[in-house]
Design a protein that fits this description.
This protein is of the alpha+beta class. The chain contains 7 helices and 17 strands.
């Protein structure tokens, strides 16, 4: 771990970390400068709880998937005791990723190993066949008997702190970070009637290499200002004038808000209406809104009267990130006749929004690299962005303090 001082003046961030009525956007460098990205990756992703997916993606013993978080290749696996383990994929012999294929086409030699998933009982490094069990313990190391003091029991894949919240799996590289769940009590209350813990993940999709900064994705997902404009027509049932955001206080671990609908039981699909059975425990008020929540830095969630969807963002560089997205449903919804066809319509609805959002976000990234890039003012419909800024600036300042303390006197 390398602590870095903030590469831009900290005082330049203060104008962004205040109420939306006075705040301006973050400095363009936080979206476009490689040096700032290196600082930010440790400041934010090195110390906060990162969502890596849902527990039902690895429902059975031996189920696993891999993911790269803050440049670190990780394995998320269901152990023999039924518990979820998150550990480094880096073999403790020569450093190869144990989940990387040993043989690949020449055209892929210089690419990073793709993320993968499956079911197994051990992970074996393709290089020298060092083998680890589902808990990361070394159980096989060929021809090491003549190495003085070598003991398999001393070696294991490094494990990360892991926490489950409503079926989502979170990890943290910082052993001193405070637990996540106690700081999500406010959001727990808002989500109580959705029973997110019981929902089932369907059709997760990972899109690598989206060509814009991860924060641009977050901002676009959460703010309610652009839907009336960019999404005119397909978003009319939940207009920007009905945007609302909960107060955000120091110590909170989530931001959330809603878009009030003009009809009950709306949906983000071509019909603009719910196409699955309505979640029966929702109140009348909940059936007249679309709820959005963010557990920074990585988990974005949207809630409709009939379903929910989640996105995770994993930064790759100052100008790219990997996005994973999936729907979640009550278990009974999966038994609905023609569920697959209805799901296709729902996915098509998301594609309609992505076809507008993704090119727009790419153009924002290009603009942030311009000498004319602004630090614009916010509408009340973007007040959540000032909350996000405040959260970020707090993490930037904390990392700068850690870096300063690490410098010898």
């Amino acid at each position: 771990m390398t602590h870095r001082r903030c590469p831009i003046p900290l005082e330049s961030l203060d104008a962004s970390a205040q109420d939306f009525s006075a705040a301006v956007g973050l400095p363009p460098a936080v979206y476009a400068d490689p040096g700032f990205f290196a600082f930010e990756r440790e400041a934010v992703f090195g110390h906060e709880w990162i969502c890596v997916g849902r527990s039902d993606q690895i429902a059975e013993v031996g189920d696993f998937f891999t993911i790269t978080v803050a440049g670190e290749p990780l394995i998320v696996a269901r152990g023999t005791d039924g518990e979820i383990n998150v550990m480094s994929s880096v073999c403790q012999h020569r450093g190869m990723c144990v989940t990387a294929p040993a043989q690949r086409p020449p055209s892929e030699w210089f690419e990073l190993p793709p993320e993968t998933s499956g079911n197994c009982r051990t992970f074996r490094c393709p290089y020298d066949w060092w083998t680890y069990d589902l808990d990361g313990r070394l159980v096989g190391a060929p021809e090491m008997g003549e190495t003085t003091g070598f003991s398999r029991s001393d070696i294991s894949l490094p494990r990360l702190r892991t926490e489950l919240w409503k079926g989502f799996v979170f990890v943290n590289f910082d052993d001193e970070a405070p637990p996540l769940s106690p700081r999500l009590v406010k959001l727990d209350e808002v989500l109580a009637n959705y029973h997110v813990d019981d929902m089932i993940t369907v059709e997760p999709e990972t899109v690598p290499g989206l060509p814009f900064n991860w924060k641009i994705m977050v901002e676009n997902f959460m703010e309610g200002y652009h839907p009336d404009r960019l999404h005119k027509g397909i978003h009319d049932f939940a207009p920007s004038r009905n945007a609302w955001y909960a107060p955000f206080e120091e110590g909170d671990a989530a931001m959330y808000g809603a878009m009030g609908a003009t009809i009950p039981d709306g949906g983000f699909n071509p019909t603009q209406k719910a196409i699955f059975p309505i979640i029966p425990t929702l109140t009348e008020t909940e059936r007249w809104r679309m709820l959005f929540a963010y557990v920074p830095p990585s988990l974005l969630m949207g809630f409709q009267p009939d379903s929910a969807f989640w996105f995770t963002v994993q930064p790759v560089s100052e100008s790219s990130h990997t996005l994973t997205m999936a729907y979640i449903f009550p278990p009974s919804t999966l038994e609905v006749p023609l569920f697959g066809e209805l799901l296709g319509a729902a996915i098509h609805g998301v594609e309609l929004f992505n076809n507008q959002d993704l090119p727009t976000n790419t153009a924002v990234q290009r603009g942030m690299g311009s000498r004319f890039a602004p630090r614009g003012r916010y509408s009340w419909q973007e007040s959540v962005l000032a909350q996000f800024n405040t959260w970020l600036v707090g993490r930037y300042r904390a990392e700068d303090r850690r870096a300063a303390a690490a410098v010898p006197a």
